[in-house]
Amino acid sequence: MIAAQPRSRILGTGRYTPARVLHNTDLEKIVDTSDSWITERTGIRRRHIAADGELTSDMATAAGRSALAAAGISAADLDMIIVGTISGDSPLPACAVHVQQKLGAWEIPAFDISAACAGFVYGLTIADQFITNGAACRVLVIGVELLSRILNWKDRTTCVLFGDGAGAVVLGPASGDGRGIVSTRIFSDGALAGSLVIPGGGTSEPLTVDGIERSRDKVHMVGQDIFKVAVKNLSSASLIALEGAGMTAADLDWVVAHQANLRIISQVAARLSLPLEKFVLNIEEYGNTSSASIPIALDEAVRDGRIKPGHNVLFCALGAGISWGASVVRM
């Protein structure tokens, strides 16, 4: 197969993570769990938690500014802002419009994507389409979550997993040198919509005092359901994206997978016949930051020199919906 030609490329990356760190040993004091239990089952040792008064849009703006600086452009150069998040400042309006104002961008389209952990891959895919058809030239794509405020801190099956943070990329037209987004694919299957959900707060279950007392406004997850499909769907989406790029897994220099669980990542590596050493891993430090996890890990690896210009990199993620996808990018 002839490799596809990139249509858009990553011009710059950025990230932001809060200063406060919550260790597994800290969680031992507030919920029935242990450092060893969390580490052995997830690979997580720490996670970063937003400061009091710190907003989702604050973190997104900081990551966005970092990506803009790396791209060598200003907010005035942007044509669009896409934010992947399920934990915005408020249910209405979109977090993206707050980011637009804080960055000082013009009256450009700014909107959110609610695909949870797959939000960044969805945003990247949508931005690529806008650039391809000429409707936009430079697009800021941000993944951000402030999950610590929508967790039930008495539920040890969820509160130990997640952290706060933001990551961002600036996309622009491919320059003809082969670098850029070569292939991207996204999918959804509503059959498991109830397996990872915030049940209260929408039109199907308006919040009541009783609902709040029962934490119906917090994240609920059937972990076994998600785990069962995660490895299969991440692997299949990755292979489909690679086929679209005219590549095989052997052509990859790096994989930046959603940092949900080290066991899931290890099994995806095995299915792709890749050593775990080819995967950018930071789950130990940040836990699951949902839509922010891929761009945070990407920015770390770009800035420390692991990911270099010309490297073939695979992104893959799965989240609530369930929604999932994969992208092949030549950096």
Structural write-up:
The structure is a single chain. The chain contains 10 helices and 13 strands. Strands 1-7-6-4-5 form a 5-stranded mixed sheet, sandwiched between helices. A 4-stranded mixed sheet has the order 8-13-12-11, sandwiched between helices. The protein has a two-stranded antiparallel sheet with strand order 2-3. The chain has 2 domains: 8-175, Peroxisomal Thiolase, Chain A, domain 1, CATH 3.40.47; 181-330, Peroxisomal Thiolase, Chain A, domain 1, CATH 3.40.47.10. It has helices at residues 24-27, 35-42, 56-71, 95-103, 119-132, 209-213, 223-244, 262-271, 283-286, 293-303; strands spanning 8-16, 20-23, 46-49, 80-84, 110-113, 139-145, 165-173, 180-188, 196-197, 220-221, 254-257, 312-319, 323-330. The protein is an alpha/beta fold. It is globular, with a radius of gyration of 19 Å. The model has no long low-confidence stretch (mean pLDDT 97). It is found in: Cytoplasm. Homodimer.
Tags for this entry?
single chain, alpha/beta, Peroxisomal Thiolase, Chain A, domain 1, five-stranded mixed β-sheet, four-stranded mixed β-sheet, Thiolase-like, fatty acid metabolism, EC 2.3.1.180, Beta-ketoacyl-[acyl-carrier-protein] synthase III
Roughly what is the average pLDDT, rounded to an integer?
A: 97
Main sheet record:
5 strands, mixed
Shape: globular
CATH class of the largest domain: Alpha Beta
Distance between the termini: 21 Å
β-strand percent reads 15-25%
Fraction of residues in helices?
A: 25-40%
The topology string of helices and strands comes to EEHHEHEHEHEEEEHEHEHHHEE
CATH topology of the largest domain: Peroxisomal Thiolase, Chain A, domain 1
The tally of beta strands, per DSSP, is 13
CATH architecture of the largest domain: 3-Layer(aba) Sandwich
Radius of gyration: 19 Å
GO molecular function: 3-oxoacyl-[acyl-carrier-protein] synthase activity; beta-ketoacyl-acyl-carrier-protein synthase III activity
Active site: 117, 258, 288
GO biological process, one term: fatty acid biosynthetic process
Protein name: Beta-ketoacyl-[acyl-carrier-protein] synthase III
